[in-house]
């Protein structure tokens, strides 16, 4: 016999269960999207704040937008194999795709105006693994945390409060060292003459399973020629790409990879703090830049130099930056690849 009186109640229970599931799903979505905590720093917000006042350049990287791609090799000495079991540190020569770039979201910025220059690398090894890295020529980062990096961009863009930067500097005194570097470090005449520093700390694991915290730098073999402000301006807006193309046509350009090993107690979670000069360093190998490649539609275009793409034998440390960078680079990558129709595949706006 069917109990007719129980039907509306069971309907109600089913509807309530469905509603509960929907509420949980919408809640989870809203939480993930940051709607429940508008103050939470999301990768999308991090990327939005990098845009210049005129808006982002569609199709381009949301930072380090101007650059020039290259290919070459990483010729390992084998000396870092004691530190990391990654194949790229075993004696050998491994293919590299890389990019020289300027720390600006504007692909048309003048080379003379860019204080920060960068070097990005992807090294591939026969075991199928890859190492990706993106470094800059500053000896330390301006701020200690990803949140402070976001707050810095906001302060720089704040048109309403003339004291925004003063207030930021008071709350983040570490930026003083970067300010001194930015106003006093010489500009060299070439990407080939710059030293590029990884700044973030990573952990190397060797074949015995021993972990050590390291940072790395690529030190140029070319002797630096320092330019005065006037000389820099006289070189023109796009001299860096033309210069490196000319040099590489003449001869391969080289950098030594120096791995620096932290002592116990060194600040591993804060890239604004350089480690003392006397730390143990290992010459891991040589980056050899052999060919300049097209930047528009060249081999770097669809590459995301995500600093968390690491082979076995290397992993992230307690430094919060690589994870924050990875999330932001991915947002930038997704946006720029979705904007293919706006990307100047050839011609105006596409730098060489
Ligand atoms: C939280 C801090 C940071 C944020 C939010 C950030 C953001 C970004 C974004 C959005 C891109 C463009 C990625 C793409 O579209 O492929 C980029 C590129 C780059 N960044 Fe960062 N970055 C941060 C920290 C750093 C640090 C610490 C370094 C160096 C030590 C660095 C060096 C570079 C370089 C060299 C590139 C160019 C990569 C390429 O050639 O594709 N960044 N950054």
UniProtKB/TrEMBL annotation:
Which SMART domains does the UniProt record give? Catalase
Q: Which Pfam families does this chain map to? A: Catalase (PF00199)
Q: What is its EC number?
A: 1.11.1.-
Which PROSITE patterns would you find in this protein's record? Answer: CATALASE_3 (PS51402)
Q: Which GO terms describe its molecular function?
A: catalase activity; heme binding; metal ion binding
A biological process from GO: hydrogen peroxide catabolic process
Residues given in the record as heme binding sites: 329
Question: What parts of the sequence cross the membrane?
Answer: 12-36
List, alphabetically, the InterPro entries matched: Catalase, Catalase_core, Catalase_sf, Catalase_SrpA-type_pred
Q: Which GO terms describe its cellular component?
A: cytoplasm
Q: Which cofactors?
A: heme
Which residues does the entry assign to the active site, renumbered to this chain? Answer: 64
Kindly state which keywords UniProt assigns to this record, in alphabetical order: Heme, Iron, Membrane, Metal-binding, Oxidoreductase, Peroxidase, Transmembrane, Transmembrane helix
Q: Where is the Catalase core domain?
A: 17-352
**Enzyme class, one word?**
oxidoreductase
Q: What does this protein do?
A: Decomposes hydrogen peroxide into water and oxygen; serves to protect cells from the toxic effects of hydrogen peroxide.
Identify the PANTHER family for this entry. CATALASE
User: Which family is annotated?
Assistant: Belongs to the catalase family.
According to UniProt, the name of this protein is Catalase-related peroxidase
Provide the species name: Paraburkholderia atlantica
């Amino acid at each position: 016999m069917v109990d007719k009186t129980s039907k509306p109640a069971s309907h109600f229970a089913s509807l309530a269960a469905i509603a509960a599931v929907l509420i949980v799903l919408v809640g989870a979505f809203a939480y993930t999207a940051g709607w429940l905590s508008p103050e939470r720093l999301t990768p999308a917000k991090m990327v939005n704040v990098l845009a210049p006042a005129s808006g982002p350049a569609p199709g381009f990287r949301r930072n380090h937008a101007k650059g020039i791609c290259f290919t070459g090799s990483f010729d390992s000495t084998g000396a870092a194999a004691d530190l990391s079991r990654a194949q790229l540190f075993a004696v050998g020569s491994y293919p590299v795709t890389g990019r020289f770039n300027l720390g600006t979201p504007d692909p048309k910025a003048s080379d003379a105006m860019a204080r920060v220059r960068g070097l990005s690398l992807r090294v591939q090894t026969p075991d199928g693994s890859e190492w990706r890295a993106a470094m800059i020529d500053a000896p330390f980062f301006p701020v200690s945390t990803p949140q402070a990096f976001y707050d810095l961009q906001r302060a720089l863009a704040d048109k309403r409060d003339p004291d925004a930067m003063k207030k930021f500097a008071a709350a983040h005194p570490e930026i003083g060292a970067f300010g001194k570097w930015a106003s006093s470090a010489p500009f060299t005449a070439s990407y080939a003459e710059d030293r590029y520093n990884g700044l973030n700390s990573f952990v190397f694991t060797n074949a015995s399973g021993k972990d050590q915290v390291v940072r790395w730098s690529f030190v140029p073999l070319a002797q630096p020629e320092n330019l005065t402000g006037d000389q820099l301006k006289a070189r023109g807006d796009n001299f860096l790409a033309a210069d490196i193309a000319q040099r590489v046509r003449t001869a391969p350009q080289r950098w030594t990879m120096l791995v620096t090993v932290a002592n116990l107690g060194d600040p591993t979670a804060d890239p604004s703090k350089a480690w003392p000069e006397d730390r143990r360093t290992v010459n891991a190998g040589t980056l050899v830049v052999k060919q300049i490649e097209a930047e528009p539609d060249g081999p770097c275009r669809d590459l995301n130099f995500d600093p968390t793409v690491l082979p076995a034998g290397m992993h992230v440390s307690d430094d919060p930056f690589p994870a924050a960078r990875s999330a932001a680079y991915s947002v930038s990558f997704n946006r720029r690849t979705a904007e293919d129709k706006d990307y100047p595949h050839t011609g105006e706006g596409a730098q060489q």
